[in-house]
């Protein structure tokens, strides 16, 4: 999993929390506890995906464009992190003269693909509104 996914979810939840559903990159960065340049990078993906738009000038920033009750974590995962469960390297070599070494890569690829599919299914059941609701529950603790 990459940190851009977490930053994107946090940013979308923060925008959903705000009454005007809008904030500057500096305000989002302060809430996420990272720098504004990193926020702008992640928000550019969200803008291209249609989740936010931008307003220039004084009082400008990023505005949530979709209903947070329909945006799922799976949507965000597919946009920013799909494939991150699957490692870049896997042991073994298909040309080896050993049943373990020659088949390990194919077997592990299947395992990771299934894990990613299950992760996306799980994330598909969680909306930005759900995450915000869990945050509100934390206030009651």
From TrEMBL:
<dbReference type="InterPro" id="IPR036388">
    <property type="entry name" value="WH-like_DNA-bd_sf"/>
</dbReference>
<dbReference type="InterPro" id="IPR000944">
    <property type="entry name" value="Tscrpt_reg_Rrf2"/>
</dbReference>
<dbReference type="InterPro" id="IPR036390">
    <property type="entry name" value="WH_DNA-bd_sf"/>
</dbReference>
<dbReference type="Pfam" id="PF02082">
    <property type="entry name" value="Rrf2"/>
</dbReference>
<dbReference type="InterPro" id="IPR030489">
    <property type="entry name" value="TR_Rrf2-type_CS"/>
</dbReference>
<protein>
    <submittedName>
        <fullName>Rrf2 family transcriptional regulator</fullName>
    </submittedName>
</protein>
